[in-house]
Amino acid sequence: MDAAEDRRLLVQEDGDHQPLLLPSLDAGLYTGDGSVDIKGRPATRRTTGNWRACFFILGNECCERLAYYGIAKNLVTYLKVKLHQGNLEAARNVTTWTGTCYLTPLIGAILADSYWGKYWTIAVFSSVYFIGLAVLTLSASVPALQPPSCLGSVCPEASLLQNGAFFLGLYMVALGTGGIKPCVSSFGADQFDDSDPTERVKQGSFFNWFYFCINTGAFVSGTVIVWIQDNSGWGIGFAIPTVCMALAIASFFSASNIYRFQKPGGSPLTRVCQVVVAAFCKWHVEVPHDASLLYEVDGQNSAIEGSRKLEHTSELEFLDKAAIISAADAKSDLFANPWRVCTVTQVEELKILVRMFPVWATTIIFSAVYAQNSIFIEQGMVLDKRVGSFNIPPASLSTFDVISVMIWIPFYDRVLIPIARKFTGREKGFSDLQRIGIGLVLSIVAVACAALVELKRLEIARSEDLIHENVAVPMSILWQIPQYFFAGAAEVFTAIGQLEFFYDQAPDAMRSLCAAFALITVSAGSYLSSILLTLVSYLTTQGGDPGWIPDNLNEGHLDRFFWLIAGISFVNFLVYIGCAMRYKYKNV
After folding, report:
1. How far is CA 472 from the centre of its chain?
2. 223, 242, 219, 243: which is closest to 231 by C-alpha?
3. Would 43 disulfide with which of 222, 260, 267, 560, CB 3.0-4.6 Å?
């Protein structure tokens, strides 16, 4: 039975539970990716999904990111000023919380792909998110939940209740944002039928504008919300993100009737374990040369709920043993045991994850480069911050990164893709792997720009005899703009390309999980950056030397650290090229 016939036979639950045969309809009426509407009926192209649904999802993402960055951007200041924490304790708490925000996506992804589906996962964790923000707002507004103000240099410590209330809200936010983060992007992409060439192009454009909304929220938070928190009070400064999250939830639910839904396919981790166990149980069995002898269910759809069949590939042949039907399996009920016999599609799911792993690993270095933002800020602190009559805070210069992203996304989507399409013949202009590779090159350029700025800065410090003075050198901070500009451009190519790659190449029933893996690279990159900084500090301070990154950067060699990062990134890029050239795209 073909796809059109499948769609014509629609079973509806009536009093007699009888299937109703609908009139013959055009095959183009329904989506071809197995999506359904909110009532579980096959999704129609005309009334569900597409941009009409994505506008609400993009609005949700913009408001949610504004809420997140409204807390994250100035969190270290709140911990120091209001909870009276020291520099080290505050920095450690911010780092731990940020890392948690990028690890909790695994929880949301597993629940979405296994049991709840993306829609209800977003609904549940959005509620947790909102409650956490409300608790933070109360913590910053109710005097009893804050320690007394400092008297001179004496700052009373926060009590157990005061710390408990604040960190309860803060980690509810971490759980909430992590729970919805891998689901929103993939749920938005689900609104486009990737079996339709026209909608597939729109799907690629969706990821660009999704990232644009992220940066719009970050830009507003880094300017307006931070200013309000510093000048009008933390109560209203936290209340605004809370209201924004309420708007995000309202935006999301308001379009429920026009969304397309993919059914959850059961635990992806269980399916992976079943393939490994079944393959090892038959380690001595020879894989047949004819792939048609491997086990697969009949029909268009796979045995996995909401998932299309995957074509057999010849790579990782050992795993194919899991789909062999042995004589013992055929004679007993072991044939129905997925821990003994798996379908070809189930085996191919694991193969896809294994093939994606090298690409995933090479993007960790990109995240480590992006984590150098704090080092960029420290570099800005020893540059001349005066521009006319204004003093530019070094941290505010990072808004050029966001501005760069907001400029590059429309340029990429409206100008670069049509030009590239003429040369490559690809619907999206570049393949996902090409796009990621271009971003990796741009990230190397960004770090190289920072190294060149530092070389010039140290040259001026020597000529002005400021080597042993912990002061800014007479070189404008605006020289940092190119490194931020290229960092933003690298994001547009690699970060968005990574989102798109992990969605496109993920098995149908593992898309949230693969989106979570993409987010974990941010956490892994941050940890890798911390390890590099620790090693550089230890190795370069031997024998009493000040090291590359001392407290007085005029005595150090921050340029060498930047060149080290650039060198590691270049080697990583070469490895990435090898992985990308060998990668085989999935076939549905």
Report:
1. 36
2. 223
3. 260
Q: CA-CA-CA-CA torsion for 195, 201, 204, 206, nearest 10 degrees?
A: -100
pLDDT tens by residue, 187-231: 999 999 888 888 888 888 898 899 999 989 888 888 888 888 888
- The region that residue 13 occupies, defined by phi over 0 for left and psi between -120 and 50 for alpha, beta otherwise, is beta
Q: What pLDDT is stored for residue 3 in this prediction?
A: 41
Q: Which two tokens stand for residue 238?
A: 């936290």
In angstroms, the CA 228 to CA 233 distance is 7
Nearest Cα neighbor of 230 from 35, 426, 413, 76 is 76
Identify whether the C-beta of residue 221 lies closer than 8 Å to the C-beta of residue 69. Answer: yes
Closest CA to 323 of 331, 332, 335: 335
- Whether residue 440 contacts residue 343, with contact meaning beta carbons closer than 8 Å, is answered with no
- Residue that is written with structure tokens 């480590």 in the block: 368
Those residues with Cβ within 8 angstroms of residue 496's Cβ, 6 or more apart along the chain or in another chain: 207, 208, 210, 211, 409, 435
Q: For the chain, what is the total number of helices (H) and then of strands (E)?
A: 21, 4
Q: Which two tokens stand for residue 118?
A: 């993306």
Tell me the mean pLDDT in the region 498-527: 88
Among 315, 357, 306, 295, residue whose Cα is nearest residue 587:
315
Beta bridge partners of 42: 36
Q: What is the 3-class SS of 1-50, one letter each residue?
A: CCHHHHHHEECCCCCCCCCEECCCCCHHHECCCCCECCCCCECECCCCCH
pTM here is 0.82
Amino acid at 519: L
